[in-house]
Amino acid sequence: MYDASELCDRVAFIVKGSIKALDTPPNLIIKGRRLKLNYTFRQAEQDQQRSTMIDETADDEILLNLLRQNRLITIHSDEPTLNDVFVSLTGSNLQ
Question: Where does residue 61 fall: left (phi above 0), alpha (psi -120 to 50 degrees), or beta otherwise?
């Protein structure tokens, strides 16, 4: 899928003979976007890692408490790829 992102103007996902999605790679990624937030925090003298979806951060009490207590060590997001969009649309990996 990396090659398709870099080389193609438009990409179609065809599943069982039907077109599931057809658009430019950036638009497919934006439409299928679910950003994941990864963060590291200190707990009991050890670094702990946790992930949550960006649209669910308001409900993540652990993250909210860590923010209030200023205990976050790192925080970053993972952007989806065309492969992630394909999997979310079809429910299966590339074969």
Answer: alpha
